[in-house]
Amino acid sequence: MKFLFSVVAACCVLFSFCLNENDSFIPGKPWKDTDGIHINAHGGGIVFMDGVYYWYGEHKTAGRGGNTAQEGVRCYSSKDLYNWKNEGIVLKVEKNPDSEITKGCIIERPKVIFNKKTRKYVMWFHLELKNQGYEAARAAVAISNTPKGPFKYIKSIRPNKGVWPINFDAKFKLAPANEEELKSWTPEWMTAVKNGMLVRRDFDMGQMSRDMTVYVDDDDKAYLIYSSEDNLTLHIAELSDDYLSFTGKWTRMEPAGHNEAPAIFKKDGIYYMITSGCTGWDPNAARSFRSKSIWGPWKSLGNPCIGKGASLTFHSQSTFILQVQGEKDQFIFMADRWKPDKPIDGTYVWLPIKFNKEKPVLKWYDKWDLDVFRKK
Ligand code: DGJ
Hints:
This protein has helices spanning 2-18, 187-194, 197-201; strands spanning 42-49, 52-58, 72-78, 85-92, 106-115, 120-128, 138-144, 152-157, 212-216, 222-228, 233-239, 246-253, 260-267, 270-276, 287-291, 299-302, 305-306, 317-323, 331-337, 347-352, 354-356, 359-363.
């Protein structure tokens, strides 16, 4: 009997090996899809629908310009979070050189949410127009009837044109004299940024929107959270009921705090955000925040990472926080280990979020699975 059991167990291991099946997360290492190819969905985000997780991310290429959009946004599907099937490019770049999403533009950090009222899948992403570097700083939106696309490009926008944020001190609506003459990065300049100098600068044309995420709250209201004001300040902007535009209600978070890569989740009615600093493709120390309301005030909780590699977020940068479906308090921190010289080789760092009282904590695992959440 014992022998038979061992034979069956060995066959199962062999079978799953032949099927190329994963049964754990191995952060920072190449992660093969069900075809045996390294997953190509960088700066990604995940939506869950009818028992399936859909992971959307930037399709990167190997050569020069691999960080620009040569194909578009790729999608993978999975039922267990370990094994992912390639569902193809769901938002395609366009051939038309006049299109905002023409091949060679920059498409970053795509995030998809489902709108219960319209039954549509809505994708928001950071768009930079072709050959303009990171100057355009636009938020773009596309829509689909199904999670597997095709997503139809709708428009890009500089959010909240002509609208002041909530709680914005009336005295800061007019620029003080000689403000433009302040030297960048001096204490006076930093104070001016905190007091809304860059909000005023971009008031008529709309606020800059670079690194971003979207979040759907328990009441189905959705928010775009993005690095604005030359990446110095995060903005949180409420989306319209169809999730395709803005209501005009928005706030600033951590003015002059220099945060990128926002990722958000909610636990026991409290909102938590994990962000990075701004060092291009190089990693830096993550930051974490908590708030009772999406509108703040957000309290800084410091670096959530502990142990070796903590000061560089284990050589990665946040992109999304995934709640494991059907499980209370199981949150996965998703991050990218960028490879700017060969972007397609960028890897993924997924780690379980643990808590130390009110503070989210991330520690390194060479290998882990969802049972980690059941262990103390
Ligand atoms: C860091 C951002 O988080 C990435 O999404 C990308 O925009 C790089 N900067 C570009 O340097």
